[in-house]
Amino acid sequence: MADTSSISLTVSEPQRAALLKAFGPFRNRKEEQDAMQQFANFCVCALFDWLTGAKRYRSLTEQYIDWIEQIYGSLIPRTEAPSADRIYNSLNVPHGQATYIARILASKTLTYWREVATKELRDALDDIAKEARQYIKDGDEAQAINVQISQVAVHELLHVCSVRRRLSRSYLMPQLAGSAGDFRFVSIPASTVANLLDDLKW
Q: Residue 148 contacts by C-beta under 8 Å, 6 or more apart in sequence?
């Protein structure tokens, strides 16, 4: 086994607060300590790559993309898709650049995030299924029900519904109703909820 050495980093309280803001909230002290260790590993590897010439970036944006991709792989839950809001607010990247980087990172793992979005969407529909079927039973198929889902889940929802709308002009489309951080509020007609749950070929 190759010899290894340990390096410890000490951060000030303002630095710790900045890291908690960027990567938290954490559920307990152990999660926080694990994240701090991952951050230390990231810092050492990034500096090592620079010192040895292992990586040479052609632009600052290319460097941001690589670093933020590593951060998403080690410090941010895999259930959270790359988002401009997170990159802008937590990592202090200019908004235009944050939007571009989020799009690049999402496209790199498109298949994975579509699977995550599909599961999230189905779980959200399951949560409102009983309410939707009651509206239908009462003859109020067009009654909208509000859900709060991520942007990637919204994209999946609108894609599936758009395909079905092209097949039937009477198909009721969901309507966007606002946003809060990385999440979007969507109003989905009761009949559309039932249709999506009764035919899960998506």
A: 124, 180, 183, 184, 185, 186
Alpha helices, H only, the chain: 13-23, 29-52, 60-74, 84-91, 95-108, 110-137, 151-167, 190-198
Give, for all 202 residues of the chain, the pLDDT tens digit. 556 777 777 888 998 888 888 888 888 888 888 888 899 999 999 999 999 999 999 998 999 999 999 998 888 877 788 888 889 988 999 999 999 999 898 888 778 888 888 999 999 999 999 999 999 999 999 999 999 998 889 989 999 999 999 999 999 999 999 888 778 999 999 999 999 999 887 7
Planar angle of CA 183, 186, 189, nearest 5 degrees: 160
Global pTM reads 0.61
Per the document, the length of the chain is: 202
Q: Report the C-alpha gap between 186 and 155 in whole angstroms.
A: 11
State residue 180 phi and psi, 5-degree precision: -150, 105
CA–CA distance from 9 to each of 90, 111, 121, 157 (Å)? 21, 37, 41, 45
